[in-house]
């Protein structure tokens, strides 16, 4: 699997895969400052909720790159990175952890503070990698040999730090000799499905067929879809799920056609402090992503544009939520509360 980034110890910087250039070019770019990392997150050079959290944590470490840097620069970096994207909860969870380390070692020398922050960032990355493998294993409890599974947006290795979230069962299944076939939604307007998911599944040797978003209903109607699996950018305490725009429509279609609809996400994506999907902030992006997609004008000048990056799928439409700590089933408010009590670890976002 190709990671979204890696830490370069020798150069004290991040080497980041520019996902905006996929699938045509695999270019690694150096990230040396929190400002550069914030720009990379905003411009979707790194994307996917877990990968955003990992990238932000390393972005905090970069605040200590200069010899004269100190803890206040770390705090400014955390404040800057918090403002990059409002919906994905992993960003805020990772930054809370980095902030706790900065507070604990506020009076330490620069070298000690940097090493402690770097260790925490590496821990966040390592935990996500292990979570992805567990997600794959739990996913294979509901996705069986020969199933044709539709997925939306991109939820693979470069959106995380290893196996991915919704793509994890496909990748782990390939390793274990379990054949799954993928229907890949192209995912308008930025085409993460066609540019990244299709590319990643091809590299992994998983059979996949690309369709436009508007074809999903048709392939379901023909009886060619056995299940839908998607990732999540934030899961509310009642089980409502914020994910890439178009997810809600797939959930409605799946219900209409009697197809199970699964959400796969690590527990870092659960926001126990957000009571329902109504409280989730939905990011709105540049209208030019629609009117001038990939540099070509495809709409008349001056047309009004609404471009939300995410939508919210009600818990009532979700068959099961697959986490790295097990599979949750309705009623989700009770299942999530039981999970929270079992974890005994508060996860509070600062969105």
From TrEMBL:
It is an enzyme of class 5 (isomerase). Keywords: Amino-acid biosynthesis, Isomerase, Methionine biosynthesis. The record marks 153 as: Transition state stabilizer. InterPro entries: IF-2B-related (IPR000649), IF-M1Pi (IPR005251), IF_2B-like_C (IPR042529), Initiation_fac_2B_a/b/d (IPR011559), M1Pi_N (IPR027363), NagB/RpiA_transferase-like (IPR037171). The active site is at 233 (proton donor). Pathway: Amino-acid biosynthesis; L-methionine biosynthesis via salvage pathway; L-methionine from S-methyl-5-thio-alpha-D-ribose 1-phosphate: step 1/6. It catalyses: 5-(methylsulfanyl)-alpha-D-ribose 1-phosphate = 5-(methylsulfanyl)-D-ribulose 1-phosphate. Substrate binds at residues 47-49, 85, 192, 243-244. It holds the Pfam family IF-2B. GO terms for biological process: L-methionine salvage from methylthioadenosine. GO terms for molecular function: S-methyl-5-thioribose-1-phosphate isomerase activity. Its EC number is 5.3.1.23. The keyword Flavoprotein does not apply. Signal peptide: none annotated. NCBIfam families: eIF-2B_rel, PRK05720.1, salvage_mtnA. Belongs to the EIF-2B alpha/beta/delta subunits family. MtnA subfamily. Catalyzes the interconversion of methylthioribose-1-phosphate (MTR-1-P) into methylthioribulose-1-phosphate (MTRu-1-P). This is Methylthioribose-1-phosphate isomerase. It comes from Rhodothermus marinus.
């Amino acid at each position: 699997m190709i990671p979204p980034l890696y830490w370069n110890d020798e150069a004290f910087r991040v080497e980041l895969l520019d996902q905006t250039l996929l699938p045509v070019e695999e270019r690694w770019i150096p990230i040396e400052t929190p400002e550069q990392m914030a720009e990379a997150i905003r411009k979707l050079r790194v994307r996917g909720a877990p990968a955003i959290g990992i990238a932000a944590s390393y972005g905090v470490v970069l605040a200590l790159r200069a010899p004269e840097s100190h803890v206040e620069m770390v705090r400014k970096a955390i404040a800057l990175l918090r403002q990059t994207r409002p919906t994905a909860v992993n960003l805020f969870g990772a930054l809370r952890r980095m902030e706790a380390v900065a507070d604990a070692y506020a009076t330490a020398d620069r070298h000690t503070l940097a090493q402690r922050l770097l260790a925490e960032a590496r821990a966040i990355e390592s935990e996500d990698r292990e979570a992805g493998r567990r997600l794959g294993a739990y996913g294979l409890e509901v996705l069986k040999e020969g199933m044709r599974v539709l997925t939306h947006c991109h939820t693979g290795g470069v959106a995380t730090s290893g196996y991915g979230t919704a793509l994890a069962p496909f990748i782990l299944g390939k390793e274990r000799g379990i054949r799954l076939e993928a229907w890949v939604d192209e995912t308008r307007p930025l085409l993460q499905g066609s540019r990244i998911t299709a590319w990643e599944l091809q590299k992994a040797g998983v059979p996949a067929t690309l369709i436009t978003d508007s074809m999903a209903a048709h392939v379901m109607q023909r009886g060619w879809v056995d299940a839908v699996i998607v990732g999540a950018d934030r899961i509310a305490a009642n089980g409502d799920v914020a994910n890439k725009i178009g997810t809600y429509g797939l959930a409605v279609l799946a219900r209409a056609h009697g197809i199970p609809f699964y959400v796969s996400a690590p527990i870092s994506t659960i926001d126990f402090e957000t009571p329902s999907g109504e409280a989730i902030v939905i990011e709105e992006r540049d209208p030019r992503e629609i009117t001038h997609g990939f540099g070509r004008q495809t709409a008349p000048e001056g047309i009004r544009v609404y471009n939300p990056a995410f939508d919210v799928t009600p818990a009532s439409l979700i068959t099961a939520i697959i986490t790295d700590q097990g599979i949750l089933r309705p009623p989700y408010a009770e299942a999530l509360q039981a999970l929270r009590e079992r974890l005994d670890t508060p996860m509070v976002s600062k969105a």
